[in-house]
Protein 1
Amino acid sequence: MTTDVAITTAVAQQFPSTTPRASLDCPAFNVPAAEALALLQYLRDAQGYDFLMDLTAVDWSAEQSPRFTVVWHLYSSTKHCYVRVAAACPADADPAMPTATGLWAGADWHERETYDMLGIKFTGHPDLRRILMWDGYPYFPLRKEFPLAGLPTEMSDAEINEEIKVGVISAPMAGGPFVATPGEPMSEAEPRAKDEAWNEKKEKPE
Amino acid sequence: MVTANPELTYNSKIEGDIVVTRVDAAINWVRTNSMWPMPMGLACCAIELMAVAASRFDIARFGAEVMRFSPRQADCMIVAGTVTYKMAPVVRRIYDQMASPKWVIAMGACASSGGMYRSYATLQGVDRIIPVDVYVSGCPPRPEALLDALMKLQGKVKKERSFSKLLSA
């Protein structure tokens, strides 16, 4: 991977509102949400960053403001280098960001995933439905306050719900994350919870 | 054998045409040797399930090679893989569509207990939504393990009181 050295000054000249973003690998910029699409279009059309590698978001936890940052990763198939663009969502409670589907059709599923996992609405998206969790799931699993093991909810299908008479029981957390211990015999080293504070048999203390 | 009335006892002329058995034994024998699986392949275990059907392991030796992709024609659901909450209602619906009698094999750690996926997305064992007859350990299990499970299930079916169940059903 080569690094596009000229891109930093070019972006700074074209978009004075951007600030450089700390990054260990490729050039990265912070940009106000209102100018994010313009910057992406400039990078695509004028700088040759023609491929949207990834689109995701960061939750900086409920105490932080701005809480959500949307991140775009672009790749140039002519320069063979990457650039990262990050924009903070102005609203913390009901975060939104303009859609990039107009620039890259491939943004469609990435934005649906980001919406599904973090609840960021992409305004102007043609079909903003959940993609991994089922329709009607009330939570956003990658938000900081969401427990790793999930929250009890109704099963997605009302008819099946009636049949089996059990909602979704959240998975036992049992200490997670699950880690393998190195240097042990294989039978002992497999990933397991190190803490059994609560599990399927013992209810989670409230 | 010489008796006054040979018709009431053993008649060598019809030897071989009559077999005396219990109804349970006959029904169970039929069910045991024509187990038609519904392959509920959801993850990596499904690959092992394919291997079971292939020539090296050859599930046909047990009369169970007729994988039915229509639940109406199947009587043994093999849940091979991770059951997510999104998929769970579908698994249950296919189970409901299968004709009775029906049995379930939970293949592998994920189907049996959620496996390593202690997360918001994974059902912690398919027995939360459907009754399971045989659990297979392993991640994924070897094809032999699934064949063993099938034999265990056949052993279970052989011992069922199928006739009285039929009458009471």
Protein 2
Amino acid sequence: MTLTTPEPEPDLLYSAEEDALRAAVRALLADRCDPATVLAGLESGRPHDPGLWRALATEIGVTGLLVPEGLGGAGATAREAAVVLEELGRAMAPVPYLTSAILAVTALLGCETDRAEVADSLAALAEGRTLGALAVPLTTAPGDTGPAPVRADAAGRLTGRVTSVADVAGAGLLLVPAEGPGGPELHAVDATADGVRTEPVTPLDLTRPLGHLTLDAAAGRPLARGDRARAALDRALLTGAGLLASEQLGLADWCLTETVRYTGERTQFGRPVGSFQALKHRMAALWLDVASARAAARNSADALSGNDPEAPLAVAVAQSFCAPVAVRAAEECIQLHGGLGMTWEHPAHLYLKRAKADELALGTPGRHRETLAGLVDLAAP
Amino acid sequence: MTDAADLRRRTADLLAAHTPGTTDRLDFLRARFDAGLAWVHFPQGLGGLDAPRALQAVVDAELAAVDAPDNDPGRIGIGLGMAAPTILRYGTEEQKRRFLRPLWTGEEVWCQLFSEPGAGSDLAALATRAVRDADGNWLVDGQKVWTSSAHLARWAILVARTDPAVPKHRGLTYFVCDMTDPGVEVRPLRQITGEAEFNEVFLTGVRIPDAHRLGAVGDGWQVARTTLMNERVAIGGARTPREGGMIQVASTAWRDHPELRTHDLHQRLLKLWVDAEVARLTGERLRQQLSPTLNSVRAGGTPLGQPGPEGSGMKLAFARLAQQISGWEVEFRGEAGLTYDDWTLRRPEGVDFTGREAGYRYLRAKGNSIEGGTSEVLLNIVAERVLGLPPEPRTDKDIAWKDLPR
């Protein structure tokens, strides 16, 4: 029996396959990425957890979701990648999924994928063998594509400095937007090449390391030029911003769930603190925020999974809504855990740091509202 | 199993047999009901085809395309949103056959006799009494308040106390009340907008045959909860297009009046626009959960006509948004915001949250966080039934209703 229904509305639910994918990711993370493990790894000096990354890549094969099957990937869509990000956000997993499997992969998909250079890079990223990083400041919003801070000469030598690049330290393949003699270009640069230097920054969010990247006549291999290069970068930023909403959703959902659990157990004045109406109302209001964020994040992932012309609007709505929800959820989590929430030992601070950094990542809520104003004809004064 | 193509075929057959332009409006609506195209998720013979609720959109689009008459849902919202799902779930076959068709066509308007002066949020404390006579029928005495459409209604859904000697939730029974009974008196209740959209209803020796009881004697609270959850979905869950409803009015005002724009109002409008769009998507997601389509069939969905407590969340969001947007608009309009269109006592036929001027919308929206469950009570419902937090301490739970302090 098949039902054909008109599809004017996006599919905002999770399919059975998406639920199965979620269960697999969640089981893996429960096994290898409990809060104590994440906390222990924070100050280890390692940019991420390589064992966990390998497991994501080989055991359940989610690093190549956005890469077509013909290019060595799983041929899935943004909808499935969003489910993975929800779970990674829920577990605060220290892995470069957003930066390598989303941003770098999407930038490459915007280039000519039948070129060996592009195809090989995509296959390497899909398998998780190589980590990719898109060399832009993490604060870059979709549409923020002015002249790049890196210059390319006619021979493809790259010189310049890009600040606050997420997960750059562990990346082997750098995708560098540059200004060439004839306009914008997108280059591939090996992280080990001469003239490439990264200096780590002490980040607010310890689970997503940042670094400043300096290129001094480093050898670049041009992947795209002109409008193509600009479009590839823009699509990568749009996809990253739109899927970041799902990471924020997973994070917020953890904060709510954990806060409800804790306040149901913690007793003061002879009753669970979660039985006091002032706290109940705050958690109920947060539940509504999280339920709303889920609709916004699903809508954004659904719009990105096809060639929906409304994707920029869906992304702007999701980012401007979900970012503050994640921050509020993490702030409420700390407050309603009381003194425990202020300890290093309890993982709540990881969620607050990630939520606050995510609010700046790939465009602030205000920046996305500016984008929206142009899209829905609500011009500024 | 009915699919979209089948529904299009059935709709075409209906239109062929009853041309909208030349068929009497009521005849057309009755024919539509009999063809199972009124509410396709209802059972066959009761205006539906046992089809997924989502497929209603197919029928509605086909009929809208040829400008077929509709049943004026704004006028019969209580019947469609609250009475019908309750009758469907708890009514006898005879009750369903008697009531649902004229309810849907709008021939018979319904109202809801629930709230009382002494029982608002604490609805289960209501005092209206129903006493059984020797023939097994009922005599009802009491007073109800905030009754929309009572002055237009042919029937009411009524909750009354049939046993004062047990705790408040256990002594209630649910009835269908005939509003033409001589013991029913309806008085307009003027509200802060100047109009009288609601009524007080006085019930004095109103006769109700036992055949008009819905559910078992003493089960009134359980039946009423079905109505209340549907009410929240009806208030908070009306399907709107993007930038529909209150935000459309505000956005249009912004576009039409560049001379009134300020940076502060712009920032706030964009935030409200995002909130309205996300509320729309959240309602859409809730609808998709209640009516699975094949590309995302869910197990464990809620039974027909039975939304869960999540509907309370939608209603909370709707109330907050309506108040914020209408407040924004009064401020945006500058000098015009100082004026009011008309304080005359009127008797509107339906509720129109977006009609009239900014001042009216602002005042009417104040009721959105009170009617159909106050925001404070709804937050308790979400906290307890969705999140599983401990219930409020209740001093009256195990005391017979007649012994409660009043």
